[in-house]
């Protein structure tokens, strides 16, 4: 199991990184595998800010940013956490995924993703649904139902632990389910391989899909 965590916190330490670490630990525990068999890599977006900016001006990611993109593309599951600015995700968080799209538009296609966000007040909790979920749907990711928002007053409260465990369980189950469903016809990352009845692009004609639904005889 390879889990990549993208944290867009700006401070050291930051509540964003704290939430990211708790989500990662809970996901590893929910997967049921020995902790030693799980690979967890954290990408601190603030350390890549300059290379992200250069990607937009010259079209090529720098060495560190390119390595981060390769890790994201190869991950079995992704945890993304951002602080809330102006009732939405941070500009640096969005720029990271914009730059990823410049280099590989399908990097997140079929990728299981768990979303998290932090803010000073619970009034911004809908950022998960009105901003983050549409973003990752556009990037073709498979987002777990439960997002985790942590306001200042949530730290130390029992409700946050419950949301973290539920979201982590969904990510672990989704990752396992996609791996099982993929079978020999799908390559790692959810991209199509050789599928019976498919053309060279891996697309099964609609007529054949309808025929498979018709009752026999």
Automatic annotation (TrEMBL):
Keywords (A to Z) from UniProt: Flavoprotein, FMN, Oxidoreductase
NADPH-dependent FMN reductase-like domain span: 1-155
Keyword Oxidoreductase included in the entry's annotation: yes
Highest taxon, organism lineage: Bacteria
Entries under InterPro entries matching the protein: CE1759_FMN_reduct, Flavoprotein-like_sf, FMN_Rdtase-like_dom, NAD(P)H-dep_FMN_reductase
Pfam families attached to this UniProt entry: FMN_red
Gene3D superfamilies xref list: 3.40.50.360
Protein name as annotated: NAD(P)H-dependent oxidoreductase
Species assigned in the record: Streptomyces marokkonensis
